[in-house]
Amino acid sequence: MNLPIKLLSTDFDGTLFAEFENPPIPVELQKLIAELQASGAKWAINTGREMASLMEALERAGVTIEPDYLVLVEREIHRHHESQYVALEPWNNTCTRVQKEIFNRVREDLPKIVGWINSRFHARIYEDPYSPFCLITGNTADMNAIHEYLNEYCRSVPNLAVVRNDVYARFSHDAYNKGTALGELTRQLGLQSSDVFAAGDHLNDLPMLKTQYAKYVAAPANAVPEVKELVRSEGGYVSERSHGYGVADAIKHYLGRTEG
Ligand SMILES: [Mg+2]
């Protein structure tokens, strides 16, 4: 295979997929990815979603191509095998253990954190299997303020990080994010960062949009300013088109197929 891209890591929501567009993943992009896969490249969806919600969204969108790998909840890696996705070990096991350890530490402080938020904002706070603390706010301004507070709290707990995507946030161990998971996948495939393309639109994508993990980084037009800024500073490609159309532009750019 002579193509420069041997592994694609694409965020899902807002990057590949635009729920209110028809189709939610452009046919143009599906064709490009299918073509790369046919040439031997691997495609990973690198998302904050968990398995069931991603599978449902892919099904509903009528997607004709199949990701070779999934990075779920910004950290767990799964490989496509006979119409199922199989957990990649020992990465996922170690990840679960390390997260559990740090979450045990965080639990002591949750009443204080929840109290601080509740006295100032209207927000939804809940626990799920991936974090003892998950947060959804009604608007970006509230999340910006709470994000600052949570970052301050993280300074008091070694290796604790806030993972934020728009108005959603949760805690994670800082060794596990979209970037480190992509690094592990690259290593498992026997590839280098110089073989990797990554595209994303929001804050939880920042760790994978670095040349440390992907030589070819990209953002669609709808990406938040922090993402565009990072992609530009890494010498990457920011498209003038949104969502999947922007990703298609970026792939064509790196394959040297830009017209005009
Ligand atoms: Mg996104």
List the secondary-structure elements in sequence, H or E.
Answer: EHEHEEEHHEEHEEHEEHEH
Total E-strand runs: 12
CATH topology of the largest domain, by name, is Rossmann fold
How large is the radius of gyration? 18 Å
Q: Major beta sheet, specifics?
A: 8 strands, mixed
Mean of residue pLDDT?
96
Number of helices: 8
CATH architecture name of the largest domain: 3-Layer(aba) Sandwich
- Structural shape: globular
**Largest beta sheet: what is the strand line-up?**
5-4-3-2-1-10-11-12
Bound ligands, each once: magnesium ion
Structure description:
The chain is an alpha/beta fold and 260 residues long. The chain folds into 2 domains: 7-74 and 177-255, Rossmann fold (3-Layer(aba) Sandwich); 93-173. 37% of the residues lie in helices and 22% in strands. It is globular and about 55 Å long. The mean pLDDT is 96. The structure holds magnesium ion. Magnesium ion binds next to loops.
Tell me briefly what this model is.
This protein is α/β, with parallel strands linked by helices.
Give the arrangement of secondary structure elements:
Layout: E1 7-10, H1 27-38, E2 42-46, H2 51-60, E3 69-72, E4 76-81, E5 84-87, H3 91-107, H4 110-118, E6 123-128, E7 131-137, H5 140-154, E8 160-165, E9 168-173, H6 178-188, E10 196-199, E11 216-219, H7 225-233, E12 237-238, H8 243-254
Parallel strand pairs: 1-2, 1-10, 2-3, 10-11, 11-12
Antiparallel strand pairs: 3-4, 4-5, 6-7, 7-9, 8-9
Bound molecules: magnesium ion.
